[in-house]
Amino acid sequence: MLIFPGVGAFGTAISFLQSRGLLEPLRDYILSGRPYFGICIGMQVLFQSSSESSLPGLAVVPCPIELFDSTDKAVPHMGWNAADLLSPAADNSEPVDQSYYYYVHSYCAKYNPQKYPSATAWIHTTTQYGHELFISSVRKGNVFGTQFHPEKSGAAGLALLDAWLRNPGAPQSTQAPAPPTLRAEHRLTKRIVACMDVRANDDGDLVVTKGDQYDVRERAHSTPTAGAVRNLGKPVALAARYYAMGADELCLLNITSFRHSPLQDQPMLAVVRAAAESIFVPLTIGGGIKDTVDPDGTPRSALEVAGAYFRAGADKVSIGSEAVYAVERLHAAGKRDGTSAIETIANVYGRQAVVVSVDPRRVYVDPATYEGPYKQELILGRPDGPENERGKAWWYQCTVSGGRESRDLSVVQLACGVETLGAGEILLNSIDRDGTGLGFDLDLINLVKKNVQIPVVASSGAGSKEHFVQVFQETAAEAALAAGIFHREEVQIADVKGALQAAGVNVRV
Question: Where is the Glutamine amidotransferase domain positioned along the sequence (predicted)?
Answer without folding.
Answer: 2-154
